Amino acid sequence: MALPTPSSDRHGTRYLRFAALGDSTTVGLGDPVATSVSPTGWRGWARLLADALATSYDVSFCNLAVTGATAGCVVAGQLDEAVAHRPDVASLIVGVNDTMRSTWDPVRLREDLMGTAEALHGTGALLLSARFHDHGRVLGLPAVLRRPLGARIEAVNEVYDEVHATFGGLRIDLGLQQEVLDRSFWSVDRLHPSELGHRVLAHGFARLLLAEGLTLAPVATTPEGGLASSWRSDLRWCMAEGAPWIGRRARDLGPWAVRTAWHEARAPRRPAGRAEPRALPARAGK
After folding, report:
1. Structure confidence at residue 69 (pLDDT)
2. What is the pLDDT of residues 255-268, one digit of tens each?
3. Helix 243-266 vs helix 143-167: crossing angle, to nearest 10
4. For the whole prediction, is pTM greater than 0.85?
5. Given the DSSP bridges, would you call strands 15-22 and 58-63 parallel, antiparallel or unpaired?
6. Residues 6/18, Cβ–Cβ less than 8 Å
7. What does the alpha-carbon distance between residue 167 and residue 150 come to, in Å, rounded to a whole number?
8. How sure is the predictor about 253, in pLDDT bands with cuts at 50, 70 and 90?
């Protein structure tokens, strides 16, 4: 895909439009900051990347991400505004919430992600995306739940592979990032990146954009400007956000988890150390 060419005014100022679409990771959950309107707001990787771009461009940053969004939510509530923004760069990181719902539909997921990517590509935007890691491993889920969740995550990744092959752009493969397995990469819930995790994401995309020819400052991977977490703030978050989220997911996915465990428990297993019996060769004339 061709490098986006930011426009300029008569004074030579270069404009760059950046639209970010997705879920709570792009909202910035896990990277709290104090703001002028709230003692606790969210910054996140997309804001960090926009600030890095702003060292060289007059950036119009449009963060349309919504906590809890699925791919369908992006189509219904974010895409039109993103296209209207006429972005030079657009990020699309969504799909994990789809895997954690009883309404999981890989066919619909593909339609939503491919349609969104096509619309953003049609504006001339350079697309930023990601392949997801093994969430079950990070969360410490038992194998009976980790395997089916992993299969769903891989189905999402296959769609992003198709998106990348069809529309190009830049992407980060989180499954290849060793930092993802480090506890410090994650906030208390292990679902949203910590400030460090957000910085690693922004740093990775900044390096890709630099290699693509854009001019921007590097994103530091050392914490700076965020609110330090403490056991009190972690506890408040768990009570206000974490526990209700777990309750909603348990009600939604509980029956699926029980069925999965039941079927796996009943699946026949060969005794350890015993090989599969070999078929006897057919005799002549039989």
Report:
1. 95
2. 555 555 555 555 56
3. 110
4. no
5. parallel
6. no
7. 25
8. low
Long-range contacts of 149-154 (CB under 8 A, 24+ apart): 149/99, 149/100, 152/98, 152/99, 152/104, 152/106, 153/96, 153/99
Biggest distance spanned by C-alpha atoms of the chain: 91
| Chain-centre distance for alpha carbon 34 | 24
* pLDDT beyond 50 at 95: yes
Element (H, E) at 33: strand 32-33
Per the listing, tokens 């270069």 go with 14
Strand, helix or coil at 131?
A: strand
Amino acid at 94: V
**What confidence tens digit (pLDDT) does each residue in 189-239 have?**
667 888 998 999 999 999 999 999 999 999 999 887 766 665 455 555 555
Q: Give the integer Cα–Cα distance in Å for 16 and 53.
A: 8
